[in-house]
Specification:
The chain has two domains: 2-80, SP0830-like domains (Alpha-Beta Plaits, 2-Layer Sandwich); 88-168, Alpha-Beta Plaits, CATH 3.30.70. Helix content is 36%, strand content 24%. It contains seven helices and eight strands. The strands form two sheets. It has a four-stranded antiparallel β-sheet, with helices on both faces. Strands 6-7-5-8 form a four-stranded antiparallel β-sheet. Helix 3 crosses helix 7.
């Protein structure tokens, strides 16, 4: 089965540095096939014949920690889940060129408690939008993600779950790469 793993917080401001070539080799040492990395923020597409998302996540996190001596939270979704994320975007069709960095998906480690979701939604200020879909959160930040209060860290703190965020261009590219395009 084809998976996409998304690492949180590597190669940011010189912290938790991991070269993509080294990361690819590590995945191959774990027995994954057809490993492809995408940009330096820690996106890896791979095939695995055994295990589910949560088992694979644990294996990858443990292998990274053993090799690099620091913990990196990892989120994993199948390429079919990515396809559904794209198909079910609550903001309609998104022009990748014009709004590919204004629409984002935050991948959560677990479904947050309802009271935490309610609390986070209180912080969404129009024209921004935030929509939950299981372990994934759609964000629309028309003035730019860098200007939004709805940062990855803010969402993690409010929901009390680990998360990592990718913009719509990256979500599309990861899906395309997972399909061999």
């Amino acid at each position: 089965m084809k998976y996409i793993s998304i690492l949180r917080g590597i190669n940011v401001s010189g912290q938790k540095k991991i070269k993509m070539g080294d990361l690819k080799s590590l995945y191959e040492l774990m027995g994954f096939q057809d490993v492809v990395t995408y940009i330096q923020s820690g996106n890896v597409i791979f095939d695995a014949t055994a295990g589910n998302e949560f088992e694979l996540k644990s294996r990858i996190e443990k292998s990274i920690e053993k090799k690099y001596k620091f913990h990196v939270p990892v989120e994993i979704r199948t390429n079919r889940k990515f396809e559904n994320i794209i198909k079910n975007c609550p903001f309609g069709s998104v022009d990748l060129a014009a709004e590919g960095t204004k629409v984002l998906v935050t991948f959560l480690s677990s479904i947050p408690a309802k009271d935490k979701i309610t609390e986070l939604l209180k912080h969404v200020v129009a024209p921004e939008k935030l929509v939950f879909s299981g372990r994934d959160v759609y964000l629309y930040c028309p003035n730019g993600y860098g200007k939004s209060k709805l940062s990855n860290t803010f969402i993690e703190n409010k929901l009390k779950v680990k998360a990592t965020t990718r913009n719509w261009k990256s979500v599309h590219k990861l899906f395309e790469l997972s399909m061999g395009e």
